[in-house]
Amino acid sequence: MITAVAEMEQGLIDAELGDHVVKKRIPLPGRGKRGGARTILAYRIEDKAFFIYGFAKNRQDNLNATELESLQILAADVLGYDNATLKKMVEQKKLIEVNNDE
């Protein structure tokens, strides 16, 4: 996950879906990126990144309009959280902080 965000900071984004919602492919063990998963992130460059949805390529091609709109609303919410709110959400296990790729 950290690798995916680092790639995004270098401009390697698979699709910008609008309103700070992006699609990024991530590899799965033994399958690489081509056979991996698609993740949807709420992302603001050099600020915050939240993995908000994921799906296997063979299960779903793209998001429909309703899903995208819902994820854009969620992205606006989570990207607006201040540090105190983020800390509280992690403590309450409403969010999971990712620190490394392990």
Short description:
The protein has helices at residues 2-9, 65-79, 83-91, and strands spanning 15-18, 21-28, 32-44, 48-56.
Give descriptors for this structure.
102 residues; alpha+beta; 4-stranded antiparallel β-sheet; 31% helix
Describe, in plain words, how this protein is organized in 3D.
This protein is 31% helix and 33% strand. The radius of gyration is 14 Å and the shape is globular. Strands 1-2-3-4 form a 4-stranded antiparallel beta sheet. It is of the alpha+beta class. It has helices spanning 2-9, 65-79, 83-91; strands at 15-18, 21-28, 32-44, 48-56. It has 3 helices and 4 strands, in the order H-E-E-E-E-H-H. Strand 2 and strand 3 form a beta hairpin. It has one domain (2-91). The longest helix has 15 residues, at 65-79. The model has no long low-confidence stretch (mean pLDDT 88).
Question: Strands, helices and their partners?
Answer:
Blueprint: H1 2-9, E1 15-18, E2 21-28, E3 32-44, E4 48-56, H2 65-79, H3 83-91
Antiparallel strand pairs: 1-2, 2-3, 3-4
What's the overall average pLDDT, rounded?
88
Low-confidence stretches: none
Indicate how many domains the architecture comprises: 1
**Most strands sheet:** 4 strands, antiparallel
Q: In percent, how helical is the residue content? A: 25-40%
Q: Give the strand line-up of the largest sheet.
A: 1-2-3-4
Radius of gyration: 14 Å
Number of strands: 4
DSSP helical segment count: 3
Briefly note the structural class of the backbone: alpha+beta
Question: What is the H-and-E element order?
Answer: HEEEEHH
Q: What shape does the CA trace take?
A: globular
